[in-house]
Amino acid sequence: MSTDELHLLTGAYVLHALAADEHDRFERHLPSCPPCAQEVRELAATAGRLGSAVSVAPPAGMKREVMARVSTERQDPPLVARRAQRAGNRGRLAASRFALAACVAAAAAFGGVAVWQHQEAEDARAAAQAAERTADDLSAVLSAPDAKVSTGKLPDGAGATVVVSRERDRAVFVASGMPEPPAGKVYQLWFSEGDAMRPAGLMGSSQTSGTILMEGPVDGASGMGITLEPAGGSAQPTSAPLAVMAFPA
């Protein structure tokens, strides 16, 4: 294996995908090659960020939905109520009052009794399902056997990584340390197909770092671009790309 070929093994080394002999040769090469050492450090940091890609925060309405469902589920009577029932009517009345007081106290602890609207429950369920699908798709791309990684630099020293799986026909973009976009602007991602740009999703209005599943299939795209666009995004770029990255071959 030539030295030029060793330079191409940084990504596989970071992902522990080298055979034992290749791993040993690359580790002997690494101390004498500052560019490879720097790339390994950058890829290792990126791999750490990618590991958090499948972590999804629960939807804001999930607690309310769970509490609403709890109120509709039949519960076993408390032990004190069963004993009171055997003791007679007076005991049953006392247990009922105790249970009622407990329910009122529980309701107060959760901020009072709220009226659960059907549409709100449906919205919360849809949000949870969408978040779960996104997490599954992210995980599928990052763990795909053919996933390939490419890193680059954005303006102001920000870091950028793209992971592409041709088998899954999807791509994931990871950014770190990007400047906050100006008021009324967002970062928009694009698939680059020759001289044409195809929309591939938006970063959050104040998002400067994160892992984003690019929208739509990779299809014939050979790379991606990033532009600043008006809030809500654009059908076509309205400014020159801040950066263009070629997809890994």
From TrEMBL:
<dbReference type="InterPro" id="IPR051474">
    <property type="entry name" value="Anti-sigma-K/W_factor"/>
</dbReference>
<dbReference type="GO" id="GO:0006417">
    <property type="term" value="P:regulation of translation"/>
</dbReference>
<keyword id="KW-1133">Transmembrane helix</keyword>
<keyword id="KW-0805">Transcription regulation</keyword>
<dbReference type="GO" id="GO:0005886">
    <property type="term" value="C:plasma membrane"/>
</dbReference>
<protein>
    <recommendedName>
        <fullName>Regulator of SigK</fullName>
    </recommendedName>
</protein>
<dbReference type="InterPro" id="IPR018764">
    <property type="entry name" value="RskA_C"/>
</dbReference>
<keyword id="KW-0804">Transcription</keyword>
<dbReference type="InterPro" id="IPR041916">
    <property type="entry name" value="Anti_sigma_zinc_sf"/>
</dbReference>
<dbReference type="Pfam" id="PF10099">
    <property type="entry name" value="RskA_C"/>
</dbReference>
<feature type="domain" description="Anti-sigma K factor RskA C-terminal">
    <location>
        <begin position="103"/>
        <end position="241"/>
    </location>
</feature>
<dbReference type="Pfam" id="PF13490">
    <property type="entry name" value="zf-HC2"/>
</dbReference>
<keyword id="KW-1003">Cell membrane</keyword>
<keyword id="KW-0472">Membrane</keyword>
<feature type="domain" description="Putative zinc-finger">
    <location>
        <begin position="9"/>
        <end position="37"/>
    </location>
</feature>
<dbReference type="GO" id="GO:0016989">
    <property type="term" value="F:sigma factor antagonist activity"/>
</dbReference>
<keyword id="KW-0812">Transmembrane</keyword>
<dbReference type="InterPro" id="IPR027383">
    <property type="entry name" value="Znf_put"/>
</dbReference>
